Amino acid sequence: MTGTREVVDFPIPRECPYHPPAVYAEARAEGPLFRVRLYDGRVAWLVTRYADVRALFADADRFSSNRDNPDFPIPAERERHFREFFRTLAGLDGEAHKTRRSMLVGRFTVRQVDRLRPYIQRTTDLLIDRMLDAGPPADLISALGRPLPSMVISELLGVPYADHERFEKWSQGLMHAPTAEEAWESGQQLVAYMDALIKEKEAEPTDDLLGTLITERMHTGELTREELVRLALAVLAAGHETTASMIGLGTLTLLEHPDQLDVLKADPGAALRVVDELSRFLSVADLTTLRVVTEDVEVGGQLVRAGEGVILSTAAANRDPDVYPEPDRLDVSRQARNNLAFGFGPHRCVGENLARAELEIVFGTLFRRVPKLRLAMPLDEIPRKVGMTLEGMLELPVTWT
Question: Do you know which Gene3D superfamilies this protein is assigned to (predicted)?
Answer without folding.
Answer: Cytochrome P450
